[in-house]
Amino acid sequence: MARSLPLFLRIAAADPAPDTAAQPWELVDRARKRLGPEPEGMLLRLARADLREFDEETIRTVLLFPPPGEQLAELVASLCASGLMQRVRAGRFQVHPGVRALLPPPRQLPIRWRALHDAAHSRVRAALHGTGRPLSGETIEDWLELIQQMIRVPSVGSVHLAGTLARYLAEQNDPHRLFALRAIVANHVLPETESSIVVPIAMAARRVGQLDQAEHLLRTANRREAAPELALVLRDSGRLLEAIAVLDEEHAERASVEEDPPALLARGAVRCDQGWHEEAERALSQAASRLAGRAARRDMAWARLEQGRCELLLGHLQSAENLIDAARETFRMLADERGVAWATTEYGRLHLLLGPDDALALLNEAEAMHRATEDARGMDWTDLCQELALNEPVSPDPPGWHWPMRKNPDRLLRAWRLHFAVARPDAQPDRLSLEATSLFKAMGCPRGQAWSLLTEGLTNLATGSDDWIAQALEQCAEAERLFQTIGDGTAKGWQQYVRLRHRIPQRLQDVLTPDRPALKLPPWWSQPSISEDSPYTLPLLARLTILPVTAADSASDETAESDDACRVRLTLLDDSPTVQAAARILLQVEPGARHPWADLAKAPYLSAVALPLTRGTLVPHTALLRASTQAEHGAQFLFRSERPGRHRMRFTIVDDASGTVLQQVETEVDLTPAPPARTVLSPFPHRSER
To answer: With bands split at pLDDT 50, 70 and 90, how would you rate the model's confidence at 157?
Structure first.
C-alpha cells in the first residue's frame, strides 16, 4: 500500500506526528533526524554514490565500514520504513532522486583544520623516520582529538595522518594510544580493515606476543601492504616455510617489480633463522642499499641489526659488532626502547663468543628492557642466551613467569631449547633429539635439523653398541648433506674436532673422518662442552655460527672426491637457444681416474631416458651411451618448445643390462623469444624504368 503512494506522502506517512503543511525539504529533514547515526550515515553515503539501483552487496562496497549481515539488513529495513529509501524489486533498492536532491551536501574541511593536518602529518612522519624529535604524550593526544574531529568529514588526508600516527605508536610500543586511535577510526567512516591502520595494530599485537590476533588482522588487510608484517608474524611463531611462502606469493604477483625494503628485511631475517646465509646476506644488503637514500633512520637501524645477526652467524665478529653497535645507538637516539632491547640481546649473544662475563651483564640489561616493553619473545630468547652465558645446563622449557603470556610460543625457540637440553646430565637424549629434529624439519630450518641429526648420531655412537653404528653413520651423513645444502662447512669442522679429541674408536675414524684438507676452526670450537659424560657432545656455542664453505674449500672437496666418483655432465651446445631452433644438449657420464669404469673396456652400456618437465619435446626419448670423458661416447638430445622462458627437464641414467636406475639429474634451459621479422626495403623501379 505504502509503495503506491507518492514519494513525499510515503515519507510523511512514516512520521509518527506528521505535519500536513510541511514542505518536502522539511519532511526529508525530519525523517533524517529520526534515524540513528548509523542509518543516517549509510543513507548519505548511498545518496552521494549517485546509484540508480543497488543491492546489499553494492551497499557493502559503498560503505567504508560495512556492518555484519543481520545488522545491515536491519539498517536497510529502517531506511525503507522511513520512506527515504524504497525497494524497487526483490533484493534491489533505490534512493529516489528527489530525496537525494534534498539531502545535505558533503561538508568541506575547514582551512584551519587543513593547516593543522598538514603540520601534524609532517611532524609525525619526521618522528617516525627519525629525522625529527620524538612526540610527547600531550602532542599525540592533541592529534588524536584532531583526527576525531576530522574523521567525521570525508577526507583522505585524515586516513593518511591516522595511518602514519598508528605506525609511530606501534614503533614506540604505545598500545594504549594505538587502540584509542583504532576506536576513533572504527566508530566513524574508516573501516577496521583499512590497511594503513590494521598493519600497525597487528605490529603492536605481534610485539606483545598476540600472534593469533595479529595474523587475523593481517589476513583481512591489503596483501601487498600486509605481506612483510605477516611474514614476521609467522616467523615469530616459528612457521618459517609459511613466512617465505607469503613473501614469494606477494612478490610473484608483482612480476618484475623488485621487492620493497620491508619485504627484503623480512626475507633476510627468516633466511638467517633457517641458515640460508647467502640469500639472507643478499636480501639484507639490498634492503640497506635502498634505505640508504631515504630519510628512514629507524628502518635503517633494523636493517643494520639484521645484518649484524647475519654477520654473527657467519662468524665475522668484528663486522657484527660494528653493525649491532650502530643499530643500538640509532635506536637510543630515536628513543626506541624495543629496538634498543633487541640490539642489546644480539650484542650479548655476540659477547658469548668474545667473553661470557661481559655477555651476562649485557643479557641481564636486555632482559630488563624486554620486560619493560612487554616483549615476551625477547625475554624468552634472552633467557636462553643467559643460560648459555652461565654455562648451565639448558632447560627444555623457558623458565619464566612470562611464558603463559604468549598464546603462540616460538617453535624455533622451543626446538633450539630441546636441542641444547640434550647435553643435560639428566636428559633423555633420544626423546629430546627426536622431538627437536621433527620441529626443525616441520618449520623449515635445515641448519637446526642438521645440528639435531648430528647430535643424534653422536649420541648413538656414544652407546658403544655395534647395533647403533649403522644408524649413527646414516644420521651423520644426512646431517652433512644438510650442512652442505646451506653452504655450511660445520660437518667438516665437526669431523676434525672429534679427531682432535681422540674419542671415537679407531675402527670408526676412517669412516667418520675421511682424509680431507685441513679447515681452520674458530676459537670457540675448542671450548669445553657442558656435559663431559657424553664424549661426543660438541661445544654448545658452536651452534651460534656456521663455517661458510669458500670456493677453495669446495674445489678441494670436489678434487678429493672426483677421482673415485662417476659424474653426469650436461653441456648446452648452443650459446643462446631460441624458440626458433632446437637446443642441443650433450649428456656424458664421466668416471674418475680411480673409478672402475675409467677403463673403457670395462665400462658397461648405459641408457639415458629424457623427460621434459615443462611444455616442450625432447628427442630422442632414450639414448645409449658409455661412461667416458670423450664426447663421442655421450648422448645428444634436442629440446624444442614454442614458449620462451625457463624450461626444466630430467635425465635418468639406467644400467642397460640390468635395468637398474643409477642416477637422476635435472637441469634448466632458457629459451629466448624469436627476434621480430625484419622487412627488407628495396627501391621500387619507376614506371619509366620498367
So the answer is: low
The 3-state DSSP class for residue 524 equals: helix
Which grid coordinates are listed for 358?
661481559
Whether the Cβ atoms of residue 619 and residue 638 lie closer than 8 Å to each other:
yes
pLDDT tens-place string over residues 188-228: 544 444 667 778 888 877 877 778 888 888 887 777 788 99
**Residue 497, CA distances (Å) to 494, 546, 561, 654 in order:** 5, 14, 21, 40
Residue with cell 595511518: 163
Burial class (CB in 10 A: 0-12, 13-18, 19+), 605: exposed
Q: Running DSSP on this structure, what letter comes out for residue 328?
A: H
Please give the pLDDT value at position 69.
66
Locate all alpha helices (DSSP H) within 151-174, ordered by sequence: 156-171
Helix (H) / strand (E) element for 53: namely none
CB neighbour burial string for 102-140, b if at least 16 within 10 angstroms, e if fewer: bbeeeeebeeebeebbeebbebbbebbbbeeeebeeeeb
pTM across the whole model: 0.60
Place of cell 656435559: 531
Number of other residues whose CB lies within 10 A of the CB of residue 681: 6
Helices 37-49/69-82 angle, 10° precision = 80
pLDDT of residue 367: 92
pLDDT tens string 335-374: 888 899 999 999 999 988 877 678 889 999 999 999 888 8
Calpha distance 338→344 (Å, rounded): 10
Task: Select from 307, 305, 240 the least CA-distant residue to 248.
Answer: 240
pLDDT at 245: 92
Helix (H, G, I), strand (E, B) or coil at 336: coil
Distance CA 405, CA 71 (A): 35
- Alpha carbons 690 and 686: distance in angstroms, whole number: 7
- CA-CA distance, 614 to 617, in Å (whole number)? 9
First to last CA, the chain: 90
Cβ–Cβ under 8 Å, residues 188 and 153:
no
Using an 8 Å Cβ cutoff, are 522 and 545 in contact?
Answer: yes
Neighbours of 317 (CB within 10 A): 17
Which cell numbers in the block locate residue 651?
A: 635425465
Does residue 105 register a pLDDT over 80? no
What pLDDT shows up at residue 324?
A: 94
Is the pLDDT at 621 greater than 50? The verdict is yes
User: What confidence tens digit (pLDDT) does each residue in 30-64 have?
Assistant: 888 888 777 887 887 788 767 788 888 777 766 64
Share of the chain above pLDDT 90, in %: 16
pLDDT digits over 220-239, tens only?
Answer: 777 778 899 999 999 999 99
Query: Whole-angstrom Cα distance, residue 381 to residue 403?
Result: 11
- Edge-to-edge, what's the strand order for the sheet holding 617-619? 566-572, 583-591, 635-640, 617-619
Q: Pairing between strand 661-671 and 86-89?
A: unpaired
What residues have CB less than 8 Å from 120, skipping those under 6 apart? 143, 146, 161
Q: Kindly write down the DSSP assignment for every residue of 412-461, as one continuous string.
A: HHHHHHHHHHTTSTT--HHHHHHHHHHHHHHHT-HHHHHHHHHHHHHHHH
The Cα 665–Cα 608 span in angstroms is 10
Q: What is the DSSP code string of 90-132?
A: TTEEE--HHHHHHSPPPPPPPHHHHHHHHHHHHHHHHHHHTSS
d(CA 164, CA 181): 11
Residue 653 near residue 663 (C-beta atoms within 8 A): yes
Assigned C-alpha cell, 228: 612483510
